[in-house]
Amino acid sequence: MALPMVNPGEGLLFCNNHHLGRLVLPATTAGSLETTCRFLLSCRMPVSASSRPAILALSEERGLHHQLTVGQMTMVAVGGSIGTGLLLGSAGALEMAGPGVIISYVLAAFIAYTVAMALGELASTHPAAGSFGVYGELYLGEYWGFLCRAAYWAAIAFSIGAELTASATYMAYWLPIVPGEVWVVVFSALLVLVNLRDVGKFGRFEFWFSMIKLATIVAFILAGAALLLAGRVPPQYTAQGGFLAKGSLAPLWAVFWAIYAFGGVEMLAVTTGESQSANDIPRAARLTILMLAGIYLGAIVVLVGVMPWNHAGVRESPFVSVLRLAKVPAAAYFMNFVVLTAALSGANAKLYVASRLLFSMGRSGWAPARLGKLNASGSPRLALLVSSYGIASALLIERWAAQEAFVYIMGAAFSGLIFSWIISLAAHVRFRRQLSREQIAALPLRSPLGAWGSIVGFVLVSAAVIQTLRASRVNEIGGLVFLVGLTLAYFILKREREHSRAEIEAGQHPHHLRQ
């Protein structure tokens, strides 16, 4: 049976797995018992009764404007992925693995591919701003769905502050007399204003903002390739101690650095809650992973070929060094502009994703109901402002935090981001096991690797998170405290949600669904 595509705000009506028709949810006020019951019948795939509260979360996202195109969804994910980790942090992976870092990035690209395909299947079936949190709740249980959404929101909102702090540092290169706090405030105001506008205008802004760094990296790949093909620089792949100069296992250790470069591919799933059409989701998922893999692998192959690995990152970005060799005028000034736009584009995408996740939690009872309200432009204003707490952290970091403490905090925060990959991969395995062959064949997007690809990805990503937490005692303790705190919050909020369900059964309007 071929299933028709379902758009956000719609569903398909099933009876004993037979498709009866399309259900369009009304635009009236959410929360009525009738709306709840109708939507429980509208999920694309059959689910158990214990999963119905999660399905309710999908219907509660109504009110968002569905305006994002394929290109805009892709560039939000690309903009959130390509950042200073590639432009400035690639030296760390290169120093650890030498030329063998190419293997590290190939493995990282494979892991990201398993995540992108898993999220693509789930998102094209369940388009929702709550994304991986909703998938976790549907297929793994309420606890994992809540933990995934809450941990990701806290981590990504904090990382907004890190991007803004980096932006202030880059501005100091040109205007050292201006305090960094001034730039944090100016850039924060700009990003908040952009995110308060309707999602279509946000999408266009982020599209062109991300295009700057995308075009720069493509230009870098072309310039480096020209240097190698023209013989202006001797290839460095085996010139400094061989391809595996740091040992045969070094590329495996460096993969934990390389995988960070792909952090952000999961943002695509969040944008599906505001896509113009569910038909666009499979295309956006494929385009995102192909673009990221091509950019990262192309950049690292050229970088390793042009730069001696034992000279990378001593005084400047390896990318600046290659541009100097290509005799690009004012390479350092140009690269500073690129990393500035990279940081601001990343902060813009992360603020969007954080606000949508908090909005979804507000609508589904995992956060105060006021966070689920939308302004006239369809933007969750209060959720956006609360998600801006990372901006306040940027001001504190800029003024008082030690550099070493900042690195520790960011390490723990990134583990929260990658945790969404673990949940998504596990949810995808459960999702696939519930489907018949006919249902799998009818999926709008099918991963060529199937459930086994997600199992392999799950093991590799879990190893990356464990390695990150074990890298320092601070990260390990901080991660444990963070997990305990979120678990306590879960049990507190769970009691409130159960009370709301009792009100539904009694025919009342639960307070967390009221507008």
Mean of all residue-level pLDDT scores: 78
The number of strands is: 2
- Apparent shape: globular
Q: How is the biggest beta sheet arranged? A: 2 strands, antiparallel
Computed Rg = 23 Å
Number of helices: 21
Q: How would you spell out the order of helices and strands?
A: EEHHHHHHHHHHHHHHHHHHHHH
What does this structure look like?
By secondary structure, the protein is mainly α. It is built from 21 helices and two strands. It has helices at 33-40, 52-59, 70-81, 84-87, 90-97, 101-125, 131-139, 142-174, 180-196, 199-229, 250-258, 267-271, 280-306, 318-325, 331-363, 381-387, 389-399, 403-433, 437-441, 450-470, 473-505, and strands at 10-15, 18-24. The chain has a two-stranded antiparallel sheet with strand order 1-2. A hairpin with a 2-residue loop joins strand 1 and strand 2. Mean pLDDT is 78; it is low at 1-57 and 511-515.
